[in-house]
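Quick illustration, no need to memorize.
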Amino acid sequence: MGKRSKKERAKKATNATPNLTETSGLAAVSQKMDNKMYESELFKLQTELVKLQEWVKATGARIVIIFEGRDAAGKGGIIKRIAERTSPRVFRVVALPSPTEREKSQIYMQRYVDQLPAGGEIVIFDRSWYNRAGVEYVMGFCTKDQYTKFLNNCPAFEIALVNEGIILLKYWLDVSEKVQHKRFEARIKDPSKRWKLSPMDLESHRRWYDYSRARDAMLASTDIPQAPWYMVPSDGKKRARLNCIADILSRIPYEEIPYKPPKLPPRQKSKGYVEPKLQHQQVAQRY
């Protein structure tokens, strides 16, 4: 089976979400999407993700997908929809906690290298080594020298990954000041979402322009031909999810692996086994 060209893959992803191309510019971003259409298009894309998964397993491909962006930009929502119908053995989500004292003494990239994919794996970084160019720098968790070295060394590190055959995709979710503020307020009011609002989130709300400057410097230093940044307008969560997943699919040269439906074997004979009446406690039937 021959490989599709990049143009053909892009067309396939677009065909999977035809309604996304009917409007353009700000109208496409701001126009609210019907939930029924969203669910229908999402299912099509998730079906393609399963095909991608089987191709990765069959070929031993190694893929890294990085999601970065401001707090409340929607990273978690996109990652959740990618992982929803795929195997965690293939699509592995990495969201590293704050470094330990031992990790702080290591080479900065060291603990991220430990998470890179082996053959047949896709690793999704919910924030990545770019922490150093964002929160660590803005909040003073690293020195100016460490920050400068990161911006200088990061392109060479990513070129090395690509030269080793890893497919590296980097997405920046771009949320507006107004929408981020609205989402933070929603988290405060909703008891089921309060856990999402940390002291660091509150500080990021206050330091909007510090983070803007850090983002601009990061993009200027690390948007390289071998590993470019792809911007995802994310004021509209549903469109952002669909557009981002479609873009991922368009940039990976996967092919559908023919599926051979297995034949279910007949059940074994009971050989006198009788199902007992279980006397254990049961959950209350409340619904």
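Residues 17-28 have pLDDT under 50 and may be disordered.
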